[in-house]
Amino acid sequence: MSLEINLDTSFDRIFQEPIVLLLFDERLPLHGFPGIVDWELCGELSRMIAERKFEGKEKARMILYLRSSCHHGRKVLVYGLGKKNTLTSNKLSMLTEDLLVALSNLSLYNVVHVMPSLYDLNSDVQGLLAGAAYTILKFTSAEDREYRFWLMWDGVSRSDIVNSFKGATGILPDAPLSIIEKED
Length: 184
Prior knowledge:
Leucine Aminopeptidase, subunit E, domain 1, 21% strand, globular, alpha/beta, 7 strands
């Protein structure tokens, strides 16, 4: 049982593993990393949002498959976070645990997490990260398997992510965690 968090996330890396695309209940167009994933989906996600076949409501889930020639068939789990302005540390921790259970049920242990932008969030971003990091460490420590997560998050610095996981290991000192900031 171990967890590897990888922050060396090039665009090529996004499409080498299954993708978890986290979305707020927001309108189009999708920006940043989520927009890039939608482009690789040939706009399928934008169409589904425009037609209200998918909304980013809390715990909403949908699986899509990349269609571009380079990455054809790669799985994308789209997961709803609800309304951006109602996100709290407790809510994000609860959503993180629900997402981890869903990933485990789908046997997805090596995934790229593509997060929405937090630029205009009215919450304490560091507090949100700390709650999510603690939940991830607690869940993965209890599982008898290895997890590898690549994190791509607009508007959040690498140092904030590293500090959140290091803070969580202070609370869970036996949590087997490795953080990779640059792959060789």
